[in-house]
Model the fold of this input.
Amino acid sequence: MKISSFDFSQTSRTFIIAELSANHNQKFELALETIKAAKRSGADAIKLQTYTPDTITLDCKTDDFKINQGTIWDGRYLYDLYKEAYTPWEWHEELFRVAKEEGLICFSSPFDKTAVDLLESLNTPAYKIASFEITDIPLIEFVASKGKPVIISTGIAGLDDIELAFNACKRMDNEQIILLKCTSSYPSPIEEANLAMIPDMAKRFGVYTGISDHTMGITAPIVAVTLGAKVVEKHFILDRSLGGPDASFSLNEAEFTAMVKAVREAEVAIGRVDYTLSDKMLKSREYSRSLYVVEDIKAGERITEQNVRSIRPGYGLHPRYYYEVLGRKAKVDLARGTPLRMNDIK
Done:
């Protein structure tokens, strides 16, 4: 599977996505600067969200449309929140262009068919299905029908929801699916990350998996990578003091840079299953234990626990021969500090 130039089948690198979301505060220049900062931080991709208040909800001031779930947005109406948070559609073409110029892969989360049409006109290399859209099977089918990789967040999904979304893609003959473990609370408590689901989803569905993370800090993404995550998505902001709907659970440039560094180090640390010893490890064995003469031994004298011991360094016989040599006689005089060898005894 490839997303633009990133080939999942040809690299062990994690695909790291900086989520722009609402962190532009409706200022175009701020959006551009955020993209450039994401590139400096080491991100592989920048992700947008493509909707308008009218494509995602209604301007309706009844209780149904008022947020009241213990979130940072409680008391606000959906329409007002999305009016503040959305990325103007007329920005998209230039944001895609600048991202490409910076060397970042740019794609987006569409929230209705008209958003998909816009992103298709920009030749988006992939699509992201947001957690709260995982139940919108017609939208998922329409996205999957475009034949591009579909990244699906599972923040509000039970197993049956994931299966429905997964099968919707398959019905459209699209098997380029990535599932992201996500906890849809903002910010989400680290103890609710449940990262063990990452390898489970990979095994259960036979796809690449990853994390869309809303916890504070960078611990969860690093642990996710050690569990096999191939994608890490994290909200990115130039400076949390800018405020905005997503500021409190977004990483600034320094923090995101630290996360990328830690993820890349984790990738290297995981390595591969290999029991062969490197030259450096072989060299280090010189200071492992071996059998040495610790008291002078005369020719014909027996080897005992008192005159031969297992000590460092490792130039003598392997300690596994210890009981085999005990009681045998020295062929020649052996001075204290001599590494014991088989041809020295009889």
